[in-house]
Write a structure and sequence with these properties.
By secondary structure, the chain is α/β, with parallel strands linked by helices. It is built from eight helices and twelve strands. The strands form three sheets. An eight-stranded mixed sheet has the order 4-5-7-6-8-9-10-11, sandwiched between helices. The protein has a two-stranded antiparallel sheet with strand order 1-2. Strands 3-12 form a two-stranded parallel sheet. Helix 7 (290-303) links the parallel strand 10 and strand 11.
């Protein structure tokens, strides 16, 4: 994906009425955020951003199910806000956009001037029952949900049906979160979002999805299935494009891009990929080992892309309460984004 420079407009001095929550800003196209919590936070919950095909435990044919997100935004008069879209974890088998730690992060950012979007997406919970199915039956069962080549790859490495579904859910998560980002761009004017300042982040499975979202091409995880096989594609703002400026990764990996490369023989890393902030515990973690962060750092360094790795010493997976030099994850990622996106801070 190409990373474009932030938009620079001839400086125009914009005077607005000042009060406790708002101050004069210089409107040169760069968003202004606050160093401290400064605004009340508004929350639009359970917005349908798209539909996706799913199965219940008793269905034989897939059906459309609504996909939801929550939007947190500051109660201020700004017309120029950066956006941070966050993807929850859960091993692609579950999880929720309303995890308390995510809500806390949403309020941290929105109270400082960001639009923060928390996304739900399809997991194995939407993939029905497949025990005892042959490969041919499985491909038919998931037609329109996952590409045949992805299903075949899943079957090669899986030891049981649960692992097959988890691998398929990895594809669904990517497809859905790309749709969520297209929805964000399509609705930028509703929330006064500056589309030149897009951050995507996530934890665990959400971080895995974040990496693939920022680095894969726009058509990846979108065009492998035709709209005739998946009519819900028509609900996903297919004509919208986006450029991710920064990625925030908590204890994840690049496994999804590894699978994508294995299936399609396409390596999507290049020197224009988004800049990357990582926070990863150094303790033994069989789910997403610390070595995964080191591998990503090596790839980024080899491409000359700016990246930071905050090692969470003494922590393993899910280290939401970890600190580095007295700063928690929200503050660490805030500092990275402000610095690297050259945001104005008041």
């Amino acid at each position: 994906m190409n990373k474009i420079p932030y938009l620079m407009i001839f400086a125009v001095l914009l005077f607005t009425a000042c009060n406790k929550d708002e101050s004069d800003t210089l409107d040169d196209g760069i968003p202004v955020v606050q160093a401290e919590s400064s605004f009340p936070v508004l929350n639009d919950e359970d917005i349908t951003y798209a539909e996706g095909l799913s199965h219940s435990n008793s269905s034989t044919s897939p059906f459309a199910t609504p996909l939801k997100l929550d939007v947190y935004y500051p109660d201020n008069s700004s017309t120029n806000r950066p956006v941070f879209m966050f993807i929850h974890g859960g091993g692609f088998t579950g999880g929720t956009k309303t995890k308390p730690e995510i809500i806390n992060m949403a309020n941290y950012y929105a109270s400082r001037g960001w639009v923060f979007i928390s996304v739900d997406y399809r997991t194995t919970e939407e993939l029905g029952m497949i025990q005892g199915m042959t490969e041919e039956e499985l491909i038919t069962f998931y037609k329109g949900i996952a590409p045949q080549e992805w299903i075949e790859q899943a079957l090669e490495g899986a030891e049981n049906s649960g692992q097959v579904q988890q691998a398929i859910a990895m594809y669904l998560a990517q497809r859905d979160n790309k749709a969520a980002l297209r929805w964000t761009v399509a609705n930028a004017s509703t929330y006064n979002i500056n589309k030149d300042f897009i951050t995507v982040g996530g934890a665990s499975a959400g971080a895995i999805t974040t990496i693939a979202l920022g680095i894969s091409n726009l058509e990846d995880f979108r065009d492998e299935i035709t709209i005739s096989d998946d009519p819900t594609l028509s609900t996903t703002n297919l004509t919208e494009t986006y450029t991710v400026r920064s990625m925030v990764y908590f204890w994840g990996s690049n496994i999804k891009l590894d699978v994508f490369e294995s299936v399609y023989e396409l390596n999507r890393y290049d020197s224009t990929d988004p800049e990357l902030f990582m926070a990863h515990g150094d303790q033994n973690d069989p789910v997403t080992p610390y070595e995964e962060a080191l591998e990503l750092q090596t790839i980024y360094d080899s491409l000359g892309i700016y990246n930071e790795l905050a090692t969470l010493y003494g922590f393993g997976h899910g280290a939401w309460n970890a600190e580095v030099n007295g700063k928690g994850l929200s503050e660490l990622s805030f500092d990275f984004l402000v610095d690297r996106q050259n945001l104005k801070v008041e």
